[in-house]
Amino acid sequence: MSTSTRPVIKCESVYKIFGDNAAKILEKSGGKVETAALLDAGCVIGVNNASFEVHKGEILVVMGLSGSGKSTLLRCISRLIDTTAGAIFIDGEDLLAMNDRELIDIRRNKMGMVFQNFALLPHKTVLENIALPLQVKGMSTRDSMDRAIDMVSLVELTGRENDFPRQLSGGQQQRVGIARSLAVEPDIWFLDEPFSALDPLIRREMQDEFLRLQSVLGKTILFVTHDFDEALRLADRIAIMKDGVIEQIDTPANIVFSPATEYVARFTREVPRERVLSCQTIMGKYDASAEMSNITVSADAIIETVAEPVLTEPKPVAVTDAEGRILGVLDSRIMIDALFSETQSVAVTN
Ligand SMILES: Nc1ncnc2c1ncn2[C@@H]1O[C@H](COP(=O)(O)OP(=O)(O)OP(=O)(O)O)[C@@H](O)[C@H]1O
């Protein structure tokens, strides 16, 4: 993830107010949002003063309980609904200033969406469902079908091309939804509770599938969920929402170890540290003269994913960066200290 470049998504004081009187009240106040007056007038505040950026290749998970404003925020940024106040920039372009044609163009070519209910057309086959957005863009039937076949393979559904949605399991239907949204090669990927309708085992499988796809595709992602565990598994950063307000936006480790508010802390109390700490945050010093294990682990791997091999390995395991350079070591003592020590002594930097 790069944070030095221009953000792909930038929100500045974004508000979404629902209610017949909202426009009138805003007009009276000269566009200034006075939440108390709006609430008194019976308006509902969907998103309340959201400001943040999402960078290229980053997964930002928007997490909150039902009614906290997650979907409304996502819909403002994808312009499925109009924003009441504030500014949204996509690759530096003012989204709210775009005309209908520009909007259709950006939504068709730059943005992909996946919804909880899969939103597949029941009378079309898997291939036809995936090819449809390409045909809407003007691609020939033949080319769109060829591309749809590639997409089916990407989401590992080869052999089911001619099935109808009703012949597929929920997880398979969502794979089709994912393939369809990726077919147009969007830069920005919006996923609104994509796995919430799936049972827990399939859900976990789809989360792994999502991470696998992202490791290949490197999209810029806004992922909405009400499940804190899902947020921890998937996010580069998590935005926690309550009553339309983003209470905290930070890495999973910082959310868990430095919750900004009491509300955020309520989600984090029970989270085991191996779920959020990376190898880099607990590793020991590398001694070039020591005999090392043949296995290595990546510096940004979460401890949970490497605990077993490290704990069963008699020799120290090298922790390496993306170029394979050794940054430090892990061994069973370091691992046990990190997992079971009572005090939190590690520096949270990832
Ligand atoms: N079209 C609408 N008209 C009026 N109020 C709305 C509308 N859409 C959303 N709201 C309100 O805005 C607030 C945020 O809703 P939103 O759907 O964004 O929440 P959410 O966090 O996505 O919830 P869920 O997880 O249940 O989908 C809620 O109070 C909701 O009732």
TrEMBL record:
Signal peptide: none annotated. InterPro entries: AAA+_ATPase, ABC_osmolyte_uptake_ATP-bind, ABC_transporter-like_ATP-bd, ABC_transporter-like_CS, P-loop_NTPase. Keywords: ATP-binding, Nucleotide-binding. PROSITE patterns: ABC_TRANSPORTER_1, ABC_TRANSPORTER_2. SMART domains: AAA. Residues 9-268 form the ABC transporter domain. It comes from the Bacteria. GO terms for molecular function: ATP binding. This is ATP-binding cassette domain-containing protein.
